[in-house]
Amino acid sequence: MEEKKVLIEARNLVKTYGEGEGLMYALNDVSLKVYEHDFLVILGGSGCGKSTFLNMLGAIDKVDSGEIIVNGRDIVKLKDKGLTLYRRNEIGFIYQFFNLINDITVYQNVTLAPGSRNKEKALKLLDRVGLLDKKDKFPRQLSGGQQQRVAIARALNKESNILLCDEPTGALDDASGKAVLKLLEEIHNEGKTVVLVTHTREIAQMANRIVTMKNGKVIKDEINEHVVKAEEVEW
User: Fold this and answer.
1) Looking at domain 36-62+78-232, which of 3.40.1190.10, 3.40.50.300, 3.30.2350.10, 3.40.190.10 is its CATH number?
2) Coil, strand or helix at 234
3) What is the pLDDT of residue 82?
4) Which residues contact 143 (CB under 8 A, 6 or more apart)?
5) What's the DSSP call for residue 229?
6) Which residues, other chains included, contact 129 with Cβ-Cβ below 8 Å and sequence gap of 6+?
7) Which of 154, 99, 104 is nearest to 129 (CA)?
8) Measured between alpha carbons, how far is residue 233 from residues 113, 181, 201, 206 in Å?
9) Virtual CA dihedral for 30, 36, 42, 48, nearest 10 degrees?
10) Residues 164, 19: Cα–Cα separation, whole Å
């Protein structure tokens, strides 16, 4: 059996907040590999370190110590320009609260983000997520589920093959959340690597690999032998 390619390897990551008696570990010696074409869910309760870990992979925050190896180099050691290029070209990021710019249109949100300037592709993506007819609307004129689909289109309007998703259904109702999960499932089936953070065990069942975190540590890393389709997920 051919060994899967490692896309990201985190080694011994440590992230702390506070000092002295108030010192808290957000990440406490976390090591983890992300393989090509994983649908990897990082599962855990509030404060377990899962979103902090995702932010490190996305170069949104910095670790105190450790390595994050991507394409043979340690992104922890990159300067600001290198980090900007990494975020622009090598990963897409989907946030719980969308992070859209409210005073520009849906279409502009998809095309103006760094690394997301492919205008023809933007229109195709908006059509795919069912929002082509909303391209001239402003985000505030859309529902939460529609805004999250715009955010997915924005993340896909680059050449990156890794999609990082931080609680993408956390601010949505059940129907909208399921539609977003279905879209992520399709994207994964087309070849993207998806890393999704959630506190919801039922959502984790749609992943082929489930990593559980607690108190800033990885306590379990398992293959899911019984993957559930997005349309069957109930929470």
Assistant:
1) 3.40.50.300
2) coil
3) 92
4) 176
5) P
6) 149, 150, 152, 153, 183
7) 154
8) 31, 9, 10, 8
9) 20
10) 30
* CA-based radius of gyration for the chain: 18
Phi, psi of 167 (to 5 degrees): 45, 55
The mean per-residue pLDDT over the stretch 208-229 comes to: 95
Q: Are 51 and 62 in contact (CB under 8 A)?
A: no
pTM over 0.85: yes
* Contact partners, residue 51, CB within 8 Å, separation at least 6: 166, 167, 197
| Residue 44, SS3 per DSSP | coil
- Which pLDDT belongs to residue 1? 47
80 Cβ contact partners less than 8 Å away, ≥ 6 residues apart = none
Token representation of residue 119: 């205008």
User: pLDDT tens, 146-185?
Assistant: 998 898 888 888 778 899 999 888 877 888 888 889 989 9
**CA separation, residue 17 to residues 14, 22, 34, 124, 190 (Å):** 10, 8, 26, 43, 39
Residue 5 has pLDDT above 60, yes or no: yes
Cross-strand partners of 14: 28, 65
- The predicted structure's pLDDT at residue 45: 92
Percentage of residues in the chain having pLDDT higher than 90 = 58
Q: Does residue 181 contact residue 211 with C-beta atoms inside 8 Å? A: no
d(CA 141, CA 145): 12
Residue 116 has pLDDT above 70, yes or no: no
